[in-house]
Amino acid sequence: MPDPSPSSSAGPIRIDGAEQDAALSKSEFLTRSEVINRRSRRAKQLAGIYRDHYWALMEELKLKYREYYWEYGKSPFVEDEENERINSSRADCAAGLAADNGNGNGNLGVNGGNGNSIGNATGRCGMNGCKAKAMALTMFCHMHILSDSKQKLYKACVFAIKSSTTGPILCGKPILRSTVPSYCSVHFQKAEKYMVRLLKKSGLNIASTSKLAPKLHVLVADWIRRIQQKRRAAEARACLENAEIIEEDNNP
């Protein structure tokens, strides 16, 4: 593809400030500012070259992805599955063919592992009653992607939305497997609110869970305040006991 950036052309790259470098090339010593300026100039030029090369690769990736999706559709193994099914049908008898069609053997199992290419043909989710569009390389939509036993990218949300006699009922919405904690976006916000509420009940006035780790001086000040409160309470109890003793002595 044509390269949109002139700095990443096939020819030799012209260094910025080459005339100035040539004038200083015969110098035995360079000042600190001259060295810093030369390094800064070359670093900026190198960063620009890397940036242009990165975006050129991104454009090439988009083009290749578009060509791949247009040629193979949602699964690159559909043709292999069809060829394998045809070869097995030629080698097996009629009873074997019926058994293979019944259990779906001989497929690579890309689309949920069931050997059914209806999802690829219609573009709809393979779940009964769902009319949503299937995701790429699978027969299920995003809501039902966990029904695909072969997928490795998603897991279920483990937020307990209700409690029952058999145990807590979890949310179960699909989220990325790398998500920590294992909550969807809605329940992650609820968990943050619950966390802030519990922290306020325990005496920590924190408005956001992103600042759960206060600085050392905040912790020291809080502990000093608690210690002083306990000392004042102990002194108040001691004064009250002394007053009661004095009153008893004055009233024989």
Key terms:
252 residues, mainly alpha, 4 domains, two-stranded antiparallel ribbon, two-stranded antiparallel sheet, 51% helix, flat, disordered N terminus
Distance separating the two termini: 109 Å
Instruction: Catalogue the unreliable spans.
Output: 1-9, 104-120
Radius of gyration: 35 Å
Number of domains: 4
Shape: flat
Can you write the helix and strand succession as a string?
Answer: HHHHHEEEEHH
Main sheet makeup = 2 strands, antiparallel
The chain-level structural class is: mainly alpha
Helix fraction by DSSP (H/I, runs of at least 4)? 40-55%
Q: How much is the average pLDDT?
A: 75
In spatial order, strands of the major sheet run 1-4
Number of helices: 7
Strand tally, please?
A: 4
Fraction of residues in β-strands: 5-15%
